[in-house]
Design a protein that fits this description.
- It is a single chain.
- With 92 residues, the protein is an all-alpha fold.
- The N and C termini lie far apart (62 Å).
- The radius of gyration is 26 Å and the shape is flat.
- The longest helix has 45 residues.
- It is 83% helix and 0% strand.
- The protein has a domain of 54 residues.
C-alpha cells in the first residue's frame, strides 16, 4: 500500500532528476557547439598564418620534450639533480 505523501515526494524527486539531466544535456550540447566553433576558428587562423602554425608546433614539441625529460629525471633516483618538487619539499 502506497502512502500518498511518499508517492508525491518520489514524483517530485523524479521530476527534479529529469530537470537536472535535461540541464546537463543542454550544457553538454552547448559546450560541444562552442568547442566546435573554437576548433573551426583555430583551423582558419592557422591556415591563414602558416608561420603561426609552425611556431605553435615548435612550442608544443618543446613542452613535450621538457615533460618527458622531467618524467625521466623523476624516475632516475641516482640523479644528482633535484626535481622541482624535491626542492620545494625536501622530504620527497
Amino acid at each position: 500500500m502506497y502512502n500518498d505523501e511518499y508517492y508525491e515526494e518520489r514524483l517530485n524527486l523524479s521530476e527534479a532528476q529529469i530537470r537536472r539531466h535535461h540541464q546537463k544535456e543542454r550544457f553538454r550540447r552547448r559546450n560541444a557547439e562552442l568547442l566546435q566553433q573554437e576548433l573551426e576558428l583555430e583551423d582558419e587562423l592557422l591556415q591563414e598564418n602558416p608561420e603561426l602554425a609552425q611556431q605553435i608546433h615548435a612550442l608544443n614539441a618543446a613542452e613535450i620534450q621538457a615533460e618527458t625529460a622531467g618524467f625521466q629525471d623523476s624516475f632516475n633516483t641516482n640523479s644528482s639533480k633535484k626535481s622541482g618538487w624535491q626542492s620545494l619539499f625536501p622530504g620527497l
